[in-house]
Write a structure and sequence with these properties.
This protein is mainly β. It has three domains: 2-42; 54-244, Cathepsin D, subunit A, domain 1 (Beta Barrel); 250-380, Acid Proteases (Cathepsin D, subunit A, domain 1), CATH 2.40.70.10. Helices cover 13% and strands 46% of the residues. It has helices at residues 2-12, 14-42, 250-253, 347-350, and strands at 52-60, 65-74, 77-86, 90-95, 105-106, 109-110, 116-119, 122-133, 141-156, 159-175, 189-192, 194-195, 198-199, 205-206, 220-225, 238-248, 260-263, 271-272, 275-282, 285-293, 301-304, 313-314, 320-325, 330-334, 342-345, 355-357, 365-370, 375-380. The strands form six sheets. It has a six-stranded mixed barrel. Strand 19 (275-282) and strand 20 form a beta hairpin. The radius of gyration is 29 Å and the shape is globular. The relative contact order is 0.15.
Length: 381
């Protein structure tokens, strides 16, 4: 109806049609110019994020030294637990006591029905598993629990981050290699590497909590661990600010950073364990091994020598040891009666899968994991 009338007017008055076209074109050009101007004005440059730093507690029980990281909130439940900061495993493993109501926890499992339940803002699934820790067959501890999800605050009032939905292992029982049941929270672990410590029947898994943290624009997902200070270890725990840097910069990942980098391999059902080929030299002999650099192992390091005979044996004080990797990084140290304690054993008889450089390695070296590219970095310091 309106189209017919409009066309009639144009046919009767040609000059009107011409003016309308000209005016329309002017308005269109002005509109385009205006849009372009507004687009330029509204372009926002997202600034490069600043890496986030977290502190650790350096603790010393007079027998074992440990790195401890605080957890201050799980779901809606405020907590105050220190977990072992462990580069030798992947995933948060925490006792359910004090996290969920005691009535839910039994020696054989959690008391609920169905596929899952939600309590204190924590989703506990019916997916169960057993986690094993230890360097050989004689030292395997077993931890029994379920897959859970929650928002978790990592760190304390000195500095923290919130991981909004973290899969973790909530356990109801931990048992030593001798069958003794560990006390509550004695086996809490914050495993930061990218392997899968636990894979559940539904193919879900837990891995480094830092893997679920977005560091922000322009940063690569991953973390650096600064060199530790032997003088900071104390019975009550000395807080060390900035020990962890979350989010890697281009400078961190450049060849000029001083880090020796190597690509990690993926294994189905295991993820990216930070184990690398290495050559160990001691007592004038050398052999190839797979090496793990592990903050969770103390007071000993472990050398798996395929030619060694006999049971596990401490190397004498004054033994010089060299660890050389296939990516250019090397490390030298000497055992003493109190420092750099090192045991040697045969992997065939011990059941040890790989050699381990324990916590004292981190007193002299920096450590990096690049989650985006699945790389390990080591730096002499």
């Amino acid at each position: 109806m309106f189209g017919h009338t409009y066309n009639s007017l144009i046919m009767k008055k040609g000059y009107l049609a011409t003016n309308i076209v000209v005016i329309s074109l002017l308005f269109l050009l002005l509109a385009i110019a205006s849009c372009k101007k507004n687009d330029n004005n509204n372009v926002k440059t997202v600034p490069v994020a600043t890496p986030k730093q977290l502190g650790l507690y350096e603790t010393d029980s007079s027998i074992y030294k440990l790195l401890v990281i605080d957890i201050s909130n799980i779901g809606t439940q405020p907590v105050n637990y220190g977990l072992v900061f462990d580069t030798g495993s992947g995933g948060m493993v925490i006792d359910a006591k004090g996290v969920v109501p005691a009535t839910m926890i039994t020696s054989t499992g959690f008391n609920f029905t169905g596929d899952s339940t939600v309590v204190n803002g924590i989703t506990i699934t019916s997916q169960t598993q057993i986690v094993e820790y230890g360097n050989d067959a004689a030292s395997i501890d077993k931890v029994y629990g379920n897959l859970a999800y929650a928002s978790v605050t990592v760190g304390d009032q000195n500095g923290n981050i919130v991981i909004k939905r973290l899969p973790f292992f909530l356990y109801y029982k931990a048992v030593s290699a001798t069958g003794a049941v560990y006390a509550a929270h004695d086996f809490d672990v914050f495993g930061v590497n990218e392997e899968y410590d636990v894979v559940f029947p539904n193919n879900a898994h837990i891995t480094s909590p830092f893997r679920y943290f977005d560091p922000g624009n322009g940063l690569t997902k991953g973390f650096k661990l600064a060199r530790l200070n032997a003088a900071n270890f104390s019975y009550s725990g000395t807080y060390v600010p900035g020990a962890i840097t979350l989010g890697l910069t281009a400078s961190d990942l450049s060849s000029s950073s001083g880090f020796f980098m190597t690509q990690l391999s993926f294994y189905a059902g295991t993820g990216y364990p930070p184990v690398v080929p290495a050559t160990v030299t001691y007592n004038s002999k050398s052999f190839s091994t797979e090496m793990l650099f592990d903050t969770g192992t103390d007071p000993y390091s472990y050398i798996e020598d395929p030619a060694f005979t006999g049971s596990i044996t401490p190397l004498p004080s004054g033994t010089a040891i060299t660890v050389g990797t296939n990516f250019g990084f090397s490390y030298n140290y000497t055992t003493s009666t109190v420092d750099n304690l090192t045991d040697v054993e045969n992997p065939t008889t011990s059941g040890g899968v790989f050699s381990i450089m324990g916590l004292e390695f981190f007193l002299n070296n920096e450590y990096m994991l690049d989650f985006a590219n699945h790389k390990l970095g080591l730096k002499r310091n």
